Amino acid sequence: MVDILTHLGAYFLMLRKAFTRPEKMKIFFKRLSAEMELIGVDSVALVSILSLFMGAVILIQSAYNFENPLIPSYAEGVATRDSMLLEFSPTIISLILVGKVGSSIASELGTMRVTEQIDALQIMGVNPVNHLILPKILAGVFIIPFLILLSMFLGILGGFLATLVTESVSTHKYIYGIQYGFEPYYIVYALTKACVFAFILTSISSYQGFTTKGGALEVGKSSTKAVVFSTIVIILFNLILTKLLLN
Amino acid sequence: MIEIGNISKVFGDRKILSDVSMYLETGKVNMVIGQSGAGKSVLLKCLVGLLETDAGEVWYDGRNFTEMNYEQKKALRREVGMLFQGGALFDSMTVEENVAFPLEMFTKMSKEERTERANFCLKRVNLPASNKLYPDEISGGMKKRVAIARAIAMNPKYLFCDEPNSGLDPQTSIVIDNLIREITLEYNMTTVVISHDMNSVMEISDNIFFVFNGQKWWEGNRNDLLKTDNKELCDFVFASTFMKEFKSSSQSKR
């Protein structure tokens, strides 16, 4: 318990140091754009493939389960859209990004720590937390919601493509289904979750990497811890946000 | 000049430094020697503020570093250059960008001026043609020289070197040693070198401090070192046959 509180305290102290005015805005924006590329642009392919196939799978599974004549024929479209918007895109994609982006952040910072690059920054008079971590957090919070929007679109597109190859759902009924009873609030809900999850995954991974002690073995351990703790906290906040935002 | 007054450092129940006091002169190479685990690196980290001391004070030219707040320490650190054991170069930057980084961060120099200054520093450490290479494309000795170039880019008053020769061949070690000595005299810096390489000690040191079991056990210069009868220091310095022979030959010359 003492250990958890110590880490929690250190995590919030790190955040306080991170959210200070950068030394030079020009360098900050340079680092921010580089991080956006690393976190966002480099994840586009993974998010696209996953979303496309997941949308198709949700449609096929829905069609398999909705064989009851009492269920309207457009229900598969509604189910695919709502599954993508409410859960798959914001939560599952965030969890997948924890594995890709979170572990990369933790190992990058961990390596910098064990090779004394962070100490070198500190000796120069640079605030290493602000210089290294703030751009990662802001880039994540800004760019991950765009990845989530892309995932929503591609997931629904995946469902559409699946209707072309399966006979169980007709294309026009699917298109009717994805428009039926659409709640624009679902987008707001998904993007709110995306922002919170992005903050969690970037900040926890940064903390794990930044506090690495030892050598190469510890860098690997920090990377694993970053994935484990980010996943647990995201799942916890998923429940809290769902309860708060959909009540 | 740097004055260390009775500093102590404890990790858990282990006392790493105990009541260490030193007077590190300007324009001189001040060498801190001692066995592995004696507390040399911890002493260096306490000096530059990477570790907080549990007791004692560190003064930089009359300025009490221990009492300074975060912003004051940050300002003082711009007068400090440090050479880390592995070089600690930023992997994502080229050699030239590494050297120019502190200039970009803390000066209003234009890009051309920064490049010019970085190339001047690289030329000073005899690395004129490596500026576009990345740290993983250069040798260990070259990394150390780039780190020295980065350390002197801001014209520091104080230079700290943590085992500058570790992992280097004897020839490259001499190049690095001579560079440290030349730069110290050229920029009139207070240089502190942590080492257990006796060749370096005999080559470039002006003042020598021997740390043993977390305490300053002995201090003097090269001549004093050859005459000393301090048992712990003799066991450390004259552990090799070469150094024993060196001592006896220098005594017979006298």
- What does the overall shape of chain B look like? globular
Tell me the CATH architecture of the largest domain in chain B.
Answer: 3-Layer(aba) Sandwich
Q: Which residues of chain A form runs of ≥5 with pLDDT under 50? A: none
How much helix is in the residues of chain A?
over 70%
Low-confidence stretches of chain B: none
Order the strands across the largest sheet of chain B as they lie in space: 6-7-8-3-9-10
Globally, the shape of chain A reads elongated
Helix and strand succession of chain A? HHHHHHHHH
How does this structure look, described?
The complex is a heterodimer of chains A (247) and B (254). With 247 residues, chain A is an all-alpha fold. Chain A contains 9 helices and no strands. Chain A has one domain. Chain A is elongated and about 70 Å long. Chain B folds into 2 domains: 144 residues, P-loop containing nucleotide triphosphate hydrolases (Rossmann fold, 3-Layer(aba) Sandwich), CATH 3.40.50; 68 residues, no CATH class. In chain B, the strands form 2 sheets. In chain B, strands 6-7-8-3-9-10 form a 6-stranded mixed sheet, with helices on both faces. In chain B, a hairpin with a 2-residue loop joins strand 4 and strand 5. Chain B is globular and about 55 Å long. The model of chain B has no long low-confidence stretch (mean pLDDT 88). Chains A and B meet through helix 5 of A and helix 2 and helix 3 of B.
